């Protein structure tokens, strides 16, 4: 929304007006869907953020710059405001990158989103340089850096087992369930057999004992082990 205001006061920036108008329409649809299906607390929090930033901060910025400033000074101040907010948007994925490093899992950071961020930053950086508008180009330098960093993290951790998953498996290992039929046959079923075998292999390797007989026995059987009582 701020870039719409910036494009209007600078003139001859039809592309920025068009792209940002389309972006506002898409974001409005997204927010409407979120407000429709989100939990009550999430809806209240989102509404407060919208009022505070989209209407409060935007209204103050537009009102003060329109009434108190004029000409080139107004363009400069509004340009800096737009650049600062854009940098904040590009810096937002830092928390996700930290989570990826901590958990060693990329499920929180889709590759397509990182790729789109990088390509968008490259295009807008080139456009800003071509029209000599550094308030458009400058934030996209940071966007390009963060986009590349996300894709590098994805390449590093895409095949790495999740640390959180490993911790949860150690704290809550799969437990067998035993069903008895007629007092004669006892059926023992272990959920997620492959994960259980991997855990035992890791434990035996850590102890220097290699792969134990129990792990080999379980791996060579089916997921369901049927033991017939004598």
UniProtKB/TrEMBL annotation:
Mark the transmembrane ranges.
Answer: 12-37, 49-69, 75-96, 108-129, 135-157
> Its function?
Mediates both low-affinity uptake and efflux of sugar across the membrane.
Q: Does the keyword Transport apply?
A: yes
What's the domain of life for this entry?
Answer: Eukaryota
| Gene Ontology MF terms in the entry | sugar transmembrane transporter activity
| Membrane topology note | Multi-pass membrane protein
The protein's name: Bidirectional sugar transporter SWEET
One GO cellular component term: plasma membrane
Q: Which family does it belong to?
A: Belongs to the SWEET sugar transporter family.
């Amino acid at each position: 929304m701020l870039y719409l205001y910036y494009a209007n006061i600078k003139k001859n920036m039809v592309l920025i007006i068009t792209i940002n108008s389309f972006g506002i329409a898409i974001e409005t649809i997204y927010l409407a869907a979120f407000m429709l299906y989100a939990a009550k607390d999430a809806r209240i929090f989102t509404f407060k953020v919208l009022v505070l930033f989209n209407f409060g901060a935007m209204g103050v910025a537009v009102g003060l710059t329109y009434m108190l400033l004029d000409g080139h000074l107004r363009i400069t101040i509004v340009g800096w405001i737009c650049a600062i907010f854009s940098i904040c948007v590009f810096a937002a994925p830092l928390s996700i990158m930290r989570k990826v490093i901590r958990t060693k899992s990329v499920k929180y950071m889709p590759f397509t989103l990182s790729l789109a961020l990088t390509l968008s930053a490259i295009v807008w950086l080139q456009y800003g340089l071509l029209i000599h508008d550094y308030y458009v180009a400058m934030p996209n330098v940071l966007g390009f850096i963060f986009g590349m960093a996300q894709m590098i993290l994805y390449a590093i951790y895409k095949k790495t087992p999740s640390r959180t998953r490993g911790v949860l498996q150690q704290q809550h290992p799969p437990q067998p369930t035993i069903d008895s039929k007629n007092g004669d046959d006892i059926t023992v079923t272990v959920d997620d057999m492959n994960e259980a075998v991997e855990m035992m292999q890791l434990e035996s390797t850590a102890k220097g004992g290699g792969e134990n007989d129990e792990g080999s026995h379980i791996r060579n059987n089916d997921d369901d082990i049927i033991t017939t009582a004598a």
